[in-house]
Amino acid sequence: MSRNAMVSRVENERVLVLERVFEAPRDLVFKMFKEPEHLKRWWGPRGWEVPVCHVDFRPGGVWHYCMKCVDKNQGDFYGMESWGKGVYKEIVEPEKIIYTDYFSDAEGNTNDTLPSTEVMMEFIDLGGKTKLVSRSEYVSAEALKTVMDMGMLEGITQTWDRLEESLSEIK
């Protein structure tokens, strides 16, 4: 287990809390979540790319993106597209981003059959390193279980591993 392993826990049956320390300054880690050219490099699990990534980084602004599986070894997932849409509620640079995360389609219409999430990301300055704390609140314990059963925790673990790799390439 690496010393930068992600720690996860569930609070109140419907809040997923994820924490990880990144070996990079807070301003840089924050920037990775703000700019589409950075997000395209690391967002999503291994074997997935982000061919579409539109970011309007302001309260009320929308982040609309597509993840596409490009890894033939992922079997039925190969070629699959997964669209997502975030609507920013609050941004405090470089400390905090709060947004609502939805499953969506290519036009940005939200998919109401899958649970949306209230996400709060905190970027804590550890003097040259950054502790990232993500709190994802679901409407119910069942909604959280739905996304966990879809493999979300493994997907986020791989995504944050890719973030760490991108950070090490930049600095």
Automatic annotation (TrEMBL):
Domain of life: Bacteria
Pfam family, one: AHSA1
Family, similarity comment: Belongs to the AHA1 family.
Positions of the Activator of Hsp90 ATPase homologue 1/2-like C-terminal domain: 24-167
Protein name: ATPase
